[in-house]
Design a protein that fits this description.
Blueprint lengths: L2 H19 L3 E6 L4 E6 L5 E6 L3 H7 L9 H17 L6 E3 L8 H11 L5
Parallel strand pairs: 1-4
Antiparallel strand pairs: 1-2, 2-3
Length: about 120
């Protein structure tokens, strides 16, 4: 079993529990260079998304080292996804870390989203 299979196996149980609750989920995916956050409805439709690939985020990160692959960028994405969710009328979500450890960039994104008004 390689790293990706292990991560997907860890994330599967979380997704099952969130599906039983029938609530919107904040799904996070990270790569070495970027971090992505999507708010997904119980019907598996993407309601809101944000990532370090967006032009506005890249403009704010311009001049910084690491650009999209650091905790500061993750916090910015968390704040943006929370603001977009609140505009869409969504205040409560379940956090789906997709099998990633709740540490570093994933933790920074979650804390920024909480500070911006989302409730997990």
């Amino acid at each position: 079993m390689d790293k990706k299979e292990s991560r997907l196996r860890r994330g599967r149980q979380t997704r099952i529990k969130i599906a039983q609750q029938k609530v919107n989920r904040l799904s996070v995916h990270r790569t070495n260079l970027h971090i992505y956050a999507s708010l997904i409805s119980p019907e598996a439709k993407v309601l809101v998304s944000a990532s370090t690939l967006e032009a506005e985020v890249r403009a704010e990160l311009a001049g910084q080292s690491g650009k999209g692959g650091n905790a500061a960028a993750a916090a910015l994405v968390g704040k943006r996804v929370a603001e977009k969710a609140l505009k869409a009328g969504i205040t409560e979500v379940a956090f789906d870390r997709s099998g990633f450890r709740f540490h570093g960039r994933v933790k920074a994104l979650a804390e920024a989203a909480r500070e911006a008004g989302l409730k997990f």
